[in-house]
Amino acid sequence: MSSASPRKSVRKGGSKATPALTKSLPRHLVIQDNFLAPDLAESLRGTFDENFLEPRSTNIKRFVWDYWHVPSQYTLIRTSAEDYFDAAQYERLTSALTDFGQKHLGCNSITKPWLSYYVDGCEQRMHTDSWHGPFAYVLSLTNWEEREFTGGETFLMESLALDYWRNFDPKVGLEEDKLMSTVEPHFNRLTLFDPRIPHGVRAVRGTKDPRKSRLVLHGWFTDLGTPFYEAGGISEESATEVLNEALQPLYDSLANKCSRVIGVLNVRLDVDGATGRVTKLSSVADTMVADPLDLIEGNTPEEVRASVLKEIERHLKDLQFDSKGQDSSITLPFIFE
């Protein structure tokens, strides 16, 4: 469980939030608006609308939907995005998601995305699904500003609720907005979150028309653990040798000096092309929290996080790479289980 409040980071377009490593805070929820190229987002939405334009038609795409109903848990209508969109649309969609995962999360792959719509009565009640991957996403194609329904927001439990008793104050009353974060599915908004956090979708009430429904693409980022190299003058082979030399002493130090943490920390190393030296260490993705069952007496969860970050910085900040004259960056994933 996380003891610090989940951080909601809002990104516009392709901007990057990369705090200095020792200043990193756990970020369990990230929102990026205008995620897809506008023409692609409109094309995907247009395909869906066209297939439902004439309710009496026998278009084959009207028969690919699965009504998924698990009593008291899940109700929605879903299909495979790969089977629904044409090859060019699907390639652009999955490339955009995969590129984002590699650059910002340290994840090299994604699960095949679902396309789902929610009409009256559809919902997802609270659940977790971290076994699918370390990061879940929802990419909205909903015409949210013109909606004719209530509900449909993604909700996530706040850390105040997950770690309720540690900061309990009997003099303070709490309401839902202090216990749950909610995210509206605006058109072309990517909502990324830690699937260990209990989450769900508020029940949709109102429309029964698919074209006026909550419409989203969703899935998980996967294949975490392999460094990602972005441009520059460092070969993967030579960089791997340098990293391997540094990582084993780092792992030994973390095991001997620090309390246990769980989650993901992806560190970006910016490398100067002229010298091969690390010029900056920053956090790209961070869901790392202290294991409350392994706290050393007197340590707070925040102090445990700080000690882990300092050890990682100490072992990586003075690395020397064989650079060929062009600035480089390496995203290095750390998985704590």
Number of strands: 18
Quickly count the domains.
Answer: 2
| CATH-assigned fold name of the largest domain | Jelly Rolls
CATH C-level label of the largest domain: Mainly Beta
- The overall average pLDDT, rounded, is 90
Radius of gyration: 22 Å
Kindly name the structural category.
alpha+beta
Give the oligomeric state of the chains in this entry, treating copies of one chain as homo and distinct chains as hetero.
single chain
The ordered string of helix (H) and strand (E) elements is EEHEEHHEEEEEHHEEEEEHEEEHE
Q: Mind describing the biggest β-sheet? A: 13 strands, mixed
The proportion of residues in beta strands is 25-35%
Tally of helical runs: 7
Percent helix: 10-25%
Global outline: globular
Report the uncertain regions: 1-17
Instruction: Report the end-to-end length measured between terminal Cα atoms.
Output: 13 Å
**Which superfamily, in CATH terms, is the homologous superfamily of the largest domain?**
q2cbj1_9rhob like domain
CATH architecture group name of the largest domain: Sandwich
